[in-house]
Amino acid sequence: MKILKNIFKNSRSNEDGIFFGEIQNIIGFKPSSIQYYQKAFTHRSTNKMDFKGNPMNYERLEFLGDAMLSAVIAAYLYNQVPTGDEGYLTKMRSKIVSREHLNELGRDLNLIRFVESKVPTQHFGENIHGNIFEALIGAIFLDKGYDYCQKFIHKCVIIPYVDIAKLEGKVISYKSLLIEWCQKEKKSFNYDVFDDNGIDGQKYFGVKLSIDNKVISKARATSKKKAEEKASQRAYFVFQEMIDHKQ
Amino acid sequence: MKILKNIFKNSRSNEDGIFFGEIQNIIGFKPSSIQYYQKAFTHRSTNKMDFKGNPMNYERLEFLGDAMLSAVIAAYLYNQVPTGDEGYLTKMRSKIVSREHLNELGRDLNLIRFVESKVPTQHFGENIHGNIFEALIGAIFLDKGYDYCQKFIHKCVIIPYVDIAKLEGKVISYKSLLIEWCQKEKKSFNYDVFDDNGIDGQKYFGVKLSIDNKVISKARATSKKKAEEKASQRAYFVFQEMIDHKQ
């Protein structure tokens, strides 16, 4: 019996170790207390309780993460757009933290693979992706404080997704902008799309964008359209910089 | 001309020094960059611009402060009420950060005395009090970061105003609770109210609450009712503790 218990204990530790490593990869720094992250991926259907008898699932962490995300985005927009008034800042923030956008963020990180639940995860609606993304932010706040929370949001929300020009509706699609530019400048272009699956079983697409037969940018995303858009945006900024340097 | 300029410069510095001291008194620590606080009390009617031509008034800081206040209160409630679910936490937070409550907080600190405006401040509606209170929080965040923001909110919002039992509607008034208790225990009570004005010209009331001719608690607030309520709450906690110790 004792041996069985030890085997069980070791296998749990291994599992915890894998989870620890994967969380570290996602958040970009070492967690201090892994318990917060375990809670962030525990669904209410498990009926888990802490030692005081309080429900142990991600719902309260979601509330906390939502508040932290709003604060970090508010501070980012405040600094980034000094010309934007209160109305503009409020509107921009709600675009960034929209339910749809948060679901996309959670889905792209494939957070659902960590969810512990009594109900098959396929039965959850779309919002589960955004909810656990927010819960993860809540866990980071409790574990490491505001500054790390801000670090994570910069890495996983602001850098890859927040593009002020696009949010303002000034740029609808970088792909169409780039195609237009190529046609005007009489340059050939080619989007080379290929499957690029990660080790986690999530379906990814890779794109190489060539202009005049020279690879200009690469991108990877969960849909062909998104990967093409990302590659176009990167190419656009490369050219923008080149033009700025010439002037 | 040079002498005049110097006199002017000195008188501005003195003014800035007084402002610096008063802000330090209110926030409870030394500001690093006084400019943020000056902005927090500048009304749009002044039409002030920064050196880049962007409007310099408190409206954008109000947006930032609102976000930080929401985040700090969320974290406080998360830790303070481990039994409260997401719905409970959301409801409690909106009670604490309600427009009415924020106006009360700003009014009690008499923040309006700092407002620089082309319009007489009497012409502003009630919301000015809450708005500049939020702007002050935004200024603290920019000047000193999240942790100081949290410190200030604990000192000026949570400690003096946030009473979970009262917010939950379990206690409507500590004064009536205390009177009821005195009658049940056959004790005499007396609220001794007196004027207690500060140096800043704001009208304050002081209260000494005696039970069986012994002063049990004291309080100071901007209305008689508030001062009596505060004193009653303090007395209530004194007795609560005595009863807990006996048990």
UniProtKB/TrEMBL annotation, chains A, B:
Ranges where the DRBM domain occurs: 173-241
Sequence positions that bind Mg(2+): 62, 131, 134
Cofactor(s) in the UniProt record: Mg(2+)
InterPro entries named in the record: dsRBD_dom (IPR014720), RNase_III (IPR011907), RNase_III_dom (IPR000999), RNase_III_sf (IPR036389)
EC numbers: 3.1.26.3
Stated role: Digests double-stranded RNA. Involved in the processing of primary rRNA transcript to yield the immediate precursors to the large and small rRNAs (23S and 16S). Processes some mRNAs, and tRNAs when they are encoded in the rRNA operon. Processes pre-crRNA and tracrRNA of type II CRISPR loci if present in the organism.
NCBIfam families for the chain: RNaseIII (TIGR02191)
Record text on subunit structure and interactions: Homodimer.
Name under which the protein is recorded: Ribonuclease 3
Organism: Flavobacterium aureirubrum
